[in-house]
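Entry:
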Amino acid sequence: MGERATRIPVNIKAIYYLKNSEGEGRIVDISTGGIGMEVRQIFVSGDLVRIVFRIPDQSNVEIDFWGIVRNVTGNLVGINFEEISNENREKIDKYVTNLLLQSGKGAKESF
């Protein structure tokens, strides 16, 4: 049994930039390691994608990062944080930690 960062269900609109296209997706879960996003475009594992979104309840906080597509299941794409500023990583960690506290879950879960 391994452990991975706990994923928290969310519903956050995001803009993505993939190669020469731009589209809108919906982040459906987030952890300290990455996000799950619903998209209406074909993504392939290994794709480098730029994601921009705002943290709910903190509309002035914009997160902007580059991620690598790790898995694709239908319209759901798993993206790991690849290039992300320390500042943005801290904001995400804080956001995820707050959600974990609200949900009563730990920061790691078995899988």
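Strands lie at 3-5, 8-18, 21-30, 34-38, 48-54, 62-73, 76-83, 108-110.
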